[in-house]
């Protein structure tokens, strides 16, 4: 499998072309995204397999571990292939209990950007998402000060592209009025479709939408309709959920997570499943 055969083809993310089938590295850290992986070599193997398959978009954050997924990415893949686009995010730290306290003062964000640069071993970050809200989701309120700090860091040459994450549609509009963004990363999947309108508006403006928890994250997607469609197509609910996202809109980029090489390979094939209009109509009823 290669860039030409990964399902979904490619998307122009700022000045780079990335495979729509990407990889989310969060699950490579230890339990609850804290500490090292149980299987260090296995984690390196998943990252190397993603590159072998032709994946050119990896999503990470300094908060994963903290720093663990960035360290693994560097160990597995540095010096990076020229085609690889690594997206990271800032806006939270970790505490000793594994919580995600927000850290969005200008000095916090500067520190996080410099830590990402140092741990990943790069001079410029391809994409930094300004993550807002909290674990329950987006919170209303201005992102201008936080996003403005990332704009300054971009002007200093430390960031190529900007994005926003865990945000409301109003916050997306606010960010876009301050500086161009290449993507929005929010919670979205077959069963959680709050962003349907936003996705369509972003698609019209060639801005990527990157769903996090595409498979339900820590609560795997479960639905009778999903299982029924999967059984009819002699496939799996996971493949159907990924294929549905790729068919939902051309600006959707997949960053499904896995810590398992076999699952990664299954997903790279399964996401290419062809869904008929009837399949999609049945699946659409899950989230509406
Ligand atoms: N911006 C944000 O606030 C935010 C928040 C959360 C996540 N994210 C990003 O979104 C990415 C994706 O989220 P996620 O990884 O948490 O959730 P996810 O992609 O919805 O689901 C990952 C889970 O699915 C399982 N899985 C994947 N493929 C499978 C297969 N073929 N068969 C069986 N199980 C399979 C994985 O287990 P195995 O390891 O056993 O395969 C893992 O437990 C993360 O990596 C992260 O980069 C961003």
TrEMBL record:
<keyword id="KW-0560">Oxidoreductase</keyword>
<dbReference type="InterPro" id="IPR036812">
    <property type="entry name" value="NAD(P)_OxRdtase_dom_sf"/>
</dbReference>
<dbReference type="InterPro" id="IPR050791">
    <property type="entry name" value="Aldo-Keto_reductase"/>
</dbReference>
<dbReference type="Pfam" id="PF00248">
    <property type="entry name" value="Aldo_ket_red"/>
</dbReference>
<protein>
    <submittedName>
        <fullName>Aldo/keto reductase family oxidoreductase</fullName>
    </submittedName>
</protein>
<dbReference type="InterPro" id="IPR023210">
    <property type="entry name" value="NADP_OxRdtase_dom"/>
</dbReference>
<dbReference type="InterPro" id="IPR020471">
    <property type="entry name" value="AKR"/>
</dbReference>
<feature type="domain" description="NADP-dependent oxidoreductase">
    <location>
        <begin position="22"/>
        <end position="286"/>
    </location>
</feature>
């Amino acid at each position: 499998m290669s860039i030409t055969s990964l399902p979904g083809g490619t998307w122009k993310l700022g000045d780079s072309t990335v495979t729509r089938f990407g990889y989310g590295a969060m699950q490579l850290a230890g339990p609850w995204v804290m500490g090292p992986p149980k299987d260090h070599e296995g984690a390196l193997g998943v990252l190397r397999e993603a590159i072998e398959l032709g994946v050119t978009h990896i999503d990470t954050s300094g908060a994963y571990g903290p720093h663990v997924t960035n360290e693994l990415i560097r160990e597995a893949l540095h010096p990076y292939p020229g085609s690889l686009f690594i997206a990271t995010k800032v806006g939270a730290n970790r505490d000793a209990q594994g919580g995600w306290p927000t850290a969005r003062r200008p000095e916090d964000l500067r520190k996080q950007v410099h830590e990402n640069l140092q741990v990943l071993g790069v001079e410029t970050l391809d994409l930094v998402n300004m993550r807002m809200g909290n674990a329950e989701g987006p919170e209303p309120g201005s992102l201008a000060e936080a996003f403005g700090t990332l704009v300054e860091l971009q002007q200093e040459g430390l960031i190529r592209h900007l994005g926003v994450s865990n945000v409301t549609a109003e916050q997306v509009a606010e960010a876009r009025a301050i500086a161009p963004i290449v993507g929005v990363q929010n919670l979205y999947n077959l069963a959680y479709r709050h962003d349907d309108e936003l996705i369509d508006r972003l698609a019209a403006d060639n801005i990527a939408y990157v769903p996090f928890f595409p498979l339900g994250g820590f609560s795997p997607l479960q639905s009778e309709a999903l299982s029924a469609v999967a059984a009819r197509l002699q496939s799996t609910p996971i493949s159907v959920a990924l294929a549905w996202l790729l068919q939902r809109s051309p600006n959707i980029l997949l960053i499904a997570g896995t810590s398992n090489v076999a699952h990664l390979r299954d997903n790279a094939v399964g996401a290419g499943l062809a869904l008929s209009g009837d399949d999609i109509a049945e699946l659409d009823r899950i989230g509406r």
